[in-house]
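re: ur question from yesterday

yeah so i grabbed the chain u mentioned. its 262 aa long if i counted rite. heres the sequnce exactly as i have it in my notes:
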Amino acid sequence: MRHLFLIFPFILLTFSLKAQKTIQPKGLEYEYKGIIYNKERAYHATIHTNGLNVGMDIGKLLTYYKTRYYHISLGYLQHPLEERQNKNTSFEGLGASRSFTYGKQNALYLLRGGIGVKKYRSEKAKRKGVAVGWSYEVGPVIGILKPTRNIYLIDVNGQGLKSPVELTYADDPEQFLDYASIFGRSDSYDSWAQLSFRPGIQAKLGAHFSWGAFEEFVRAAEIGLMVDYFGVKVPIIVENEAHSNDALFLNLYLTFQFGRRT
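ran it thru and got these structure tokens back, copy pasting raw so excuse formatting
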């Protein structure tokens, strides 16, 4: 019994030291996961194979890994065969000649809308890391066609004296393609009163890279493939046996996004 009284304090001391060792608090390890913000507004600039656009995405953060957003943007799309040139001449009363794109019938502006989803596929345990994922989007697009208006130097009265005349393709198709008489593109605003519209659908699929996904400010980049489809050919250039217009426009794109989460 005496030996038990001697051993018992030793046993208590052993358990006490072990308990202290096991219950000592460790350094806290934070994992920045979950929904920190509810909404996201991102402004973006996009360059693609045949044009550019600027716009805005308004998103709802469903989970850390998934955001649903609504998209709107305004852009410009060129035909692959467009080539700007200048004759580098001058004319009294007009000054130096202006640049123009031979055979360009209309300028095409695109108003895009859509709904999309972006998902992160990479684990992101550090606040300053990069979240890698992908996004897709689909929605309507409205093509806005503005007639190209050029200045032509024409002998109107047949007296050998040339005068400047502004023409679109619809005004005089034959004269519009007379390269020798083109002085340059007109800076008149009259073409804005002759707009026409083409409805269609648009979609895109891309890889998404986000810096600081847990922070207040949005900083991201995206690269992928985008498509606009109108069902019928869009008259950007004057067609001939060698050149034609398209109803489907497929482009590679690169987007930069900046915004804020709330």
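noticed a couple things. Residues 1-32 have pLDDT under 50 and may be disordered. also Residues 31 and 125 are 6 Å apart (CA to CA).
anyway ttyl
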